[in-house]
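REQUEST ID: PR-0412
SUBMITTED BY: lab tech R.K.
PRIORITY: routine
TASK: structure prediction, single protein chain
INPUT:
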Amino acid sequence: MASYVSKEYYLNTYKGTIIPDDEIEKKLEDASMDVDTLTFNRIVARGFDNLTTFQKDIIQKVVCKLADFEFENADLLQTPLSNYSINGVSMGFSEKWNVQIQNGIAIPKKDYCLLGQTGLTCRSMRC
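STATUS: complete
OUTPUT:
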């Protein structure tokens, strides 16, 4: 599976600086697969090149944002815990957190809303 974003796009257009150079391509590929899950594989079905310029621009931006988010929060995202407590200090993940879980993918709410502008995240079969 190829990424919807190249390393060059991430570095030069998106101006990404968070992911180390040797991990960029893998993180972009992982984020692209997550975007496919969030869009019910509609991008795969239609073909990325067959989308509108507007849709492609948003998808590429969301892939970069999601790759950064997943890299920065890898430890939290990979834990099976929804809350924990250490020495009287507790932390929990709830719907009040600015991240939502959609189709098993954790994504910042604002980025999911941005992706929704493509029309590809609709649950209806008519989308």
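NOTES: DSSP finds six helices and four strands in the chain.
REVIEWED BY: pending
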